Amino acid sequence: MPIAIYMLGLAVFAQGTSEFMLSGLVPGIVRDLQVSVPAAGALTSAFAVGMIVGAPLTAVLSLRWPRRRALLVFLTIFMIVHVAGAVTTSFGVLLAARVAGALANAGFLAVGLAAATAMAGPGAKGRAASVLLGGITLACVAGVPAGAVLGQVWGWRSAFWAVAVVSVPAVVAVAVAVPSIPPTTSIPPGTAMSPDPAPPPDATMSPDATMSPAVPAARRELRALCEPRLLVTLLLGALVNGATFCTFTYLAPLVTEVGGYGPGWVPVLLALFGLGSFAGVSIGGRMADRRPMRLLVPGGLALTTGWIVFGVAADIPAAVFVLVFVQGALSFAVGSTLITRALYAAADAPSLGGAFATAAFNVGATAGPLLGGVAIGAGLGYRSPLWVSALLVALALAVAGAALAARRTGTTGAPASPTRRAAR
Hints:
mainly alpha; globular
């Protein structure tokens, strides 16, 4: 893997810390800003909403930018809004800062996925994606527990300051290590990311030709994103990610109020979840390129079973300790493999494929905490998000089975393009 891909992973580490760290900061935010636990949990959903809206929007807007410039712009904005979040005393402002940070994060991840998979070369999309997603899991191992410790010692605002500080070396690393890859519309024909070949000088110009070159490029890629198998893969990813975020967002109150752990154990259990996530991404990166079904089918079944067992045994400290690791590993092994398969299915949309994968998976990150919050708010207790997670993964398995049956009976639509067939 080129060193530049690992530098992108460093930046994703800072962003992943921000995305996940609220799971250890919810109690402090509730006390300081005088809001309910579900309202504080909605900050995670607000971040995910920004990711959903921002991923395709920022990817389209940045089609004309060299990729290094786009990455630097998004990362700088991300750093600035975390400073704003650290100094505010208003929950509304904090909510807005989370959305703005998510917009920048979405743009960075969408462009970063496209750049990383292009630099990695054919047949290595899974490994390239696993490096970037590894930044998120390392954030769970180190960044999120560190943020929880900072929140307990110096208050939740110190965690926001820490994310801003960590972003500074990430900006420098991206500026130095990432090549100035041209925008999609200017890459020479014949490459994996090239647009259609330029017409001869005497060719009749279509209406699109008088527009910015990014406009027809975006239209071509949007058409490519309507392939049925891609849409099913994105839906499965949203459901699995929803299950992950549903429980992870409320992990701190779950382990303290139900699991019998003291507040000092929260960073340890967050780190344990992160270690499991890193193991899952590593396994997914090795299998997603060549043997995805060997992971997705048994992994999906095991993930569903794990959430059910967790729900039953949530009041047993030893079981909680084991299941936090296991469910982190299974969630990210299955989730990262689905991301990779989405990138392969979107081979004809190299720039917007990563954006829509980011958006779809954050649909789950939005819905999961909201559903968990609804269950808690309905008086079902802090154990209830585990049952919601089990239902979401079970639904994903049902959708996958229905899609497979439909494909075997020839009801999934028109055949895929040669590029997509080769990507499978």
